[in-house]
Amino acid sequence: MKYLTYSGNNIIAAKLPDDANIFYAQDPIPGLRRRDVPQAVRRAFENPLGMPPLKELVDASSRVLIAFDDNCQPFPPTPLPDIRQQSIETLLDMLDAYGVKLGNIHLICAIALHRKMKKHELARMLGARIMGDIYPDRLINFDAEDRGQIADLGETEKGESVQVYKGVIESDLVIYVDSVQVPLNGGHKSVAVGLASYESIANHHHPKMTAECPHVMQPEGSHMHESIERISRVIMKQTRIMVMEAAMNNATYPRSVRHLGMPDERCNMGQRFLKRATPWAMAVTPESIRKAILRGVRGAYDPVEINAGDIDAVHERTIDVMTRQMTVTAPRQYDTLVVGLPDLSPYAIDARINPVLVVSDVLGYIFNWFYDKPLVKKGGAVIILNPVFEVFHPEYHVAYRKFYDDVLSETSDPFEMMDGFQEKFARDPHLIECYRNRFAHHGFHPFTVWYWATYAFKYLSKVTLVGPADDACAKRLGVSWSPNLAHALAASQEASGGGQVAALTIPPFFYTRMA
After folding, report:
1. Contacts of residue 486, Cβ cutoff 8 Å, sequence gap at least 6
2. What would the pLDDT profile of 109-142 be if each residue is shown by its tens digit?
């Protein structure tokens, strides 16, 4: 059986056993047309869920803080205008009509411990009007290490530190503008994580949160999300928060290349021909050109619903859309899961995916994309198809390079790295300076993505890389290596004790649920 999938910047036809099952995302739920988004945003703020209309929450003296996501989502980026631009421009027009002075409105990119956005990246997300009217005096990146701008609100009932951007507390109204692609995001996570300090984030981005409970990628049954909600409710006692969530469909690809994520039975004759021709064409194309082609593909996501209002009421609607869009039913669990991983990651926008992200994106993200049980049996195996180049972006991934060199050379165990290295990295003056002034991820960030794989590391009997030229990266990452997929499948069958194989065609993204 041929499995059309990614391996870095290549698209290959991998050979699977004839009885393997390949899973695909649902077709996209029809979304709002781009030109209809501003009106949908206006309706959402005029008719919010669980809160009075926006016009009743502000007046001429109101201080308003508008927070928005960084470029991790929508991912990959969509064509312009960006939904953040459309939403915030509409919101600014409404606030102006309600008498709020432009000088009392501040915008902040809620990066948490991600890298800061460069000026051209903010301009792409927000457009010329907002950049001209507000940047740079009242449009900033959040800085989790600017201690003078962090408010300490004490602790939750579980002893979790609550620290948040001071502007959240000093504003009369905080509005968080969010586009949600997966159930991980949105809800209480927005303000309570996006505008929080390391001390606050370390409470829930912690290996104990996922050691026994796998649900990190959805709120239901998740220790991590429970901690985030406790922190959020402390913040909500100090200020008024209104959220706007655009629940997005899963249209990763524009129509011209949508066949890459579709099974043959949903393709027409031309699309089936292209699917068969693509691996051959990619094989004779130089790597640099393949990279340019794949990076040039823009996401075609559209919002299915746009709602504003109270965090709980709005996020309930978002989760409903996510569940309808993302659920794919699996008949059973499997012994081995094969995942072809493209050279893409939300933490490697405008960069090559590094070895740490290869493992964390599969074991922390994709493995955890399920609702009830993992797609793989306990003691099963995962095979990752990716060349895993030992490349780290010199600006963005400074902490990742150090994590790869200093931490993974000693241990791949999340608890050992937490005890032995986490505080050193989080407090390292050079890494803090790189985060604050050189567009690097925070020193704690590589730990967070590795911790999300804690459950998978305990649950699986074997993780194998197929694609690297040798086993050097695999040894450093604490996983196995095979020279080809056939060898990896045989080794996985021996380790798992069974031969049932499943493979995922991702993107588009989806979650599995057992029948």
Report:
1. 15
2. 999 999 999 999 999 999 999 999 999 999 999 9
**Rounded to whole angstroms, how far apart are CA atoms 159 and 200?**
11
Tokens of 295: 């990076």
Angstrom CA distances, 279 to 6, 7, 9, 214, 290, stand at: 10, 11, 11, 35, 11
- pTM listed for this prediction: 0.97
d(CA 196, CA 143): 9
Instruction: Please check whether residue 168 is in contact with residue 237, taking contact to mean a CB–CB distance below 8 angstroms.
Output: no
Q: Report the distance separating Cα 20 and Cα 33, nearest Å.
A: 38
Measuring CA to CA, which residue among 75, 112, 117 is closest to residue 189?
Answer: 112
A 10 A CB-CB count for 354 gives 25
Tens digits of per-residue pLDDT, 448-476? 999 999 999 999 999 999 999 999 999 99
Q: What angle do CA 6, 180, 305 make, to 5 degrees?
A: 120
Alpha-carbon distance of 120 to 403, in angstroms, equals: 29
- What's the CA gap between 244 and 320, in Å, rounded? 15
Structure letter (DSSP) for residue 220: T
d(C-alpha 443, C-alpha 435), whole Å: 8
Rounded alpha-carbon distances, angstroms, from residue 25 to 4, 12, 249, 380, 456:
14, 19, 11, 23, 22
